[in-house]
Amino acid sequence: MRFLRAxxxxxxxxxxxxxxxxxxTPLGTLGDEFNDxxxxxxxxxxxxxxxxxxxxxxxxxxxxxxxxxxxxTPHSSVWYNNRKGALAFQAVSGDFVATTALWVRDRDAAxxxxxxxxxxxxxxxxxxxxxxxxxxxxxxxxxxxxxVLSGAGSGANEASFQVxxxxxxxxxxxxxxxxxxxxxxxxxxxRIGDTFITAYRAEGANWxxxxxxxxxxxxxxxxxxxxxxxxxxTASGVSAYEHNSTVLSGAPDLTASFDxxxxxxxxxxxxxxxxxxxxxxxxxxxxxxxxxGANGIPTPVPEPATWLSLLTGLFTLGAVARRPGRxxxxxx
Length: 332
Description:
Helices cover 8% and strands 37% of the residues. It has six helices and 18 strands. It has an eight-stranded antiparallel sheet. The radius of gyration is 19 Å and the shape is globular.
């Protein structure tokens, strides 16, 4: 991960040296290093394809807000149950391993890039079942959201950074969170058959499997991409339809910059073929990480140290990886 963070006092870079142990095979041309603003045209926006007419992103650019990154700054919105937020996506069919390097923080660069101030302010990866909607006023119905999410930001406890994983079946969302040390994180979302697996690597830590889901309901072709949402209190205070079709006025406090987005093909070793990957008793996290985590990231690898040497005030920060007990919630 390479980011130049700047405020009124000092500019500095934080590097997460994350070169893959084994170079995975890229899946088509789905990846984007976000070095060229012209690649924005590769991405579709959900509010356009489904005809909602409400752009839930205040900012969506490559390179303008943060050099070498795609930045999403959401209006008040959420991905939860029947409420859908912003999604920039590409279509993917079959198995895949999607990975991104994310810098998530609040909107105020002058405060040291703090945790977003409102709960459930999240950015990350999503794989979603497309819906046959072009005119929501006549075609949208409740109960039709189906997706898996791997994200990071502020969760139920907005005082600390969290990684979040979420599965939504027929608009019934269930999520789990774990604390991380900063807003610099790598996220991964993989599909292998009917199993979806989320993983993450926090700053200074090793790759961790976050969760596994059996999703036999999801179609072969999905919308795979990047999400950002914020200000759950405002977003949950209106009906789902109003939320989905309106740019809400609230207090959103999240900026998400994605350093790169890479998608790899899946190549299971013979030892894992035919096993239930959703069952930790059958396949351990360590076994999954032989094909996921660093081993699921295709080339190109992150920039070498010679690039970082051009930046002033280089700091490499690390933290001992901790894995406290997860909090899992279903809607009440």
